[in-house]
């Protein structure tokens, strides 16, 4: 029994070995990942230093599209959507991109030939995200029956490629808001959240909208404090106006 288990372990190890090698191979190829907000300026750069006295350096947008090539002390910029927006720093090999666009997302390739003509390649995965649009909470239903308040909220998101989370005053609700609908039954007046927030996010930005709850079963777009503040803004000048006339 014991030896069988040992054999089994050995077999597992033999199975795992190629997997580990694969992982280190991929690391050796060093694909970096860069995530940025659209509109920003960025510098694509490998983490290692360039080979000394390299002969040629080329940046590719895709395997078929060259962006810039440095050869014998000169940089040649190719006709691409990057023209006028990129600058190569031959010292570090960095590719500086101005006003990066969502469409610039790609796996970039940097190919370098060293003094003896041997080619080396690096990959950088660039992901560009637009800022998320602001969500708007739509109050679909507030209904009170038998001391239970039934709420149905809809988080309206113009762009669906974002993640959305509902928050109450005790933190996020565990339910994902895939369909962006939040349905709640508030059974007891003491166990309600003072507000409900829908937050949308992507890796570079986040925005939210909030509605406020007043027991037993009322929802409003702004809290009582805000309401008083806006009431004062309207009323004070009116009263002053009345006093002055
Ligand atoms: C990007 O660089 C340009 C030119 O140097 C500059 O005018 C602009 O303000 C920069 N934009 C950002 C978001 O840093
Ligand atoms: C060029 O690259 C090859 C392979 O990476 C390496 O063996 C060689 O030493 C390099 N030569 C120079 C001059 O850097
Ligand atoms: C309300 O209270 C009940 C029982 O005390 C609990 O199970 C439930 O999770 C609470 N609901 C909220 C939204 O906090
Ligand atoms: C949404 O969240 C998941 C899990 O956290 C993440 O893998 C994915 O990249 C996110 N999508 C966006 C667009 O932020
Ligand atoms: C909602 O957005 C505001 C700023 O607009 C931020 O201060 C707040 O932390 C956000 N709330 C959540 C739950 O993300």
Automatic annotation (TrEMBL):
Broad class of the protein's primary localization: membrane
Assembly behavior: Interacts with CD2. Interacts with CD244; this interaction is possible not only on different cells (trans interaction) but also on the same cell (cis interaction). Interacts with LCK.
Name under which the protein is recorded: CD48 antigen
SUPFAM superfamilies given in the database record: Immunoglobulin (SSF48726)
Topological category with respect to the lipid bilayer: Lipid-anchor; GPI-anchor
Signal sequence annotation: 1-28
PANTHER family noted in UniProt: CD48 ANTIGEN (PTHR12080:SF134), SIGNALING LYMPHOCYTIC ACTIVATION MOLECULE (PTHR12080)
């Amino acid at each position: 029994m014991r030896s069988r288990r040992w054999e089994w372990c050995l077999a597992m190890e033999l199975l795992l070995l190629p997997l580990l090698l694969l992982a280190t191979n991929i690391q050796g190829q060093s694909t970096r990942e860069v995530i940025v907000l659209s509109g920003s300026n960025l510098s694509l750069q490998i983490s290692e230093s360039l080979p000394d006295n390299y002969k040629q350096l080329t940046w590719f947008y895709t395997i078929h599209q060259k962006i810039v090539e440095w050869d014998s002390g000169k940089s040649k910029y190719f006709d691409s959507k990057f023209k006028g927006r990129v600058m190569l720093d031959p010292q570090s090999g960095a590719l500086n991109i101005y006003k990066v666009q969502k469409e610039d997302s790609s796996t970039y390739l940097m190919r370098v030939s060293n003094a003896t003509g041997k080619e080396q390649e690096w990959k950088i995965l660039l992901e560009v995200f637009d800022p998320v649009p602001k969500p708007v909470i739509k109050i679909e239903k507030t209904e009170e029956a038998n001391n239970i308040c039934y709420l149905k909220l809809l988080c309206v998101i113009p762009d669906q490629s974002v993640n959305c989370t509902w928050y109450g005053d005790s933190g996020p609700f565990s339910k994902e808001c895939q369909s962006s609908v939040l349905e709640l039954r508030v059974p007891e007046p003491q166990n309600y959240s003072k507000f409900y927030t829908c937050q949308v996010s992507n890796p570079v930005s986040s925005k939210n909208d909030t509605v406020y709850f007043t027991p037993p079963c009322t929802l409003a777009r702004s809290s009582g404090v805000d309401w008083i503040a806006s009431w004062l803004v309207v009323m004070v000048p009116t009263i002053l106006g009345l006093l002055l006339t």
